[in-house]
Amino acid sequence: MELPPRPQLFDFNGVSMTNIFTDNWDNVQNFKARPDDILIATYPKAGTTWVSYILDLLYFGNMSPDRQTSIPVHDRVPFLEICAPPLPSGADLADKLPTTPRLIKTHLPVQFVPKSFWEQRCKVVYVARNAKDNAVSYFHFDRMNLIQPEPGDWSSYLQGFMEGKRVFGSWYDHVNGWWEKKQSYSNLHYMFYEDLIEDSEQEIDRLCSFLGLSPSPEEKERVRASVTFDSMKQNKMTNYTSVPVMNHKVSPFMRKGTTSCWATFFFSISISVCAPFIIRLIKYCECSPSPGKVGDWKNHFTVAQNEQFDEDYKKKMKNPDLKFRCEI
Ligand code: A3P
């Protein structure tokens, strides 16, 4: 498939966008949501695929095994606003989903969400990730995804991120806008990537109680085991290796996960023998012993970039109730 040149960012009603996400605007805005639709909303790279897969397994994990081995998660959970011919648009795919409830993904800032979702009182799951790791993940994604604008070098990329000049606009406006919405719209579950890393079982329980689901302990365990980073990285239905516009040699979609540094290795085999020493070693190496990865930003930000970022962050993130963790 011959690819067009990478798209350019432009201002779209105050939000940086590319034509891939605005070309089908009228159809997206007129999308007819149904009351049992579930919208999964995120700023790009906040854990959309992870939560999409969790929800898909919770609802449809017991359906035919073929579904799990033959339909990629991005087809099971269509991306509402995407329009990249000759592929069918996300709105068309969502319209034709044969299953109920329909799980639909969006990266739209809250003010752009089609009004039928609010009118129908659809359940919405919003996932947010700390700004620093989110920026790093987005940078690598833009390197490998040929239908994203050229990212340039890390330093200018980070500057653009702080200025809101990334596809789907400002991270700061996105997470704040959705947080405000949650105050008036009770069918919105706002969750954090870091919490999911720290305690996936608890977060799956919270999701189930929001969605009104009560899976058996065995079903829950099956879901939890299927959605670990390593399982999803190996699984062709969740690792995006079938998507031709993504070059996984540049950077894999499932990029980080279980930390591979030596300190973590030592941690796992020697904890009982010399825990205090190992913990000091881990701190020294600035590695996280958690099973997922929070804090990869430390491998990318210089001290000066971090200081500038923190200064700017304070000005933009004034709501004391909305707190992110950049390490766990
Ligand atoms: P990294 O680039 O930091 O590795 P999205 O689905 O919104 O595009 O988000 C992708 C990010 O979520 C990637 O982050 C990816 O590795 C991470 N991710 C996906 N599944 C995950 C899982 N099961 N556990 C931990 N992180 C996961």
UniProtKB/TrEMBL annotation:
Keyword Transport part of the UniProt annotation: no
InterPro entries tied to this protein: P-loop_NTPase (IPR027417), Sulfotransferase_dom (IPR000863)
Compartment(s): Cytoplasm
Cross-referenced Pfam families: Sulfotransfer_1
MF terms (GO), sorted A to Z: sulfotransferase activity
GO biological processes: catecholamine metabolic process; xenobiotic metabolic process
Domain named Sulfotransferase: residues: 35-266, 292-319
Gene Ontology CC annotation, any one: cytoplasm
Taxonomic superkingdom: Eukaryota
Chief place of localization: cytoplasm
Alphabetically ordered keywords of this record: Catecholamine metabolism, Cytoplasm, Transferase
Entry's EC annotation: 2.8.2.-
Family indicated by similarity: Belongs to the sulfotransferase 1 family.
Protein name in the entry: Sulfotransferase
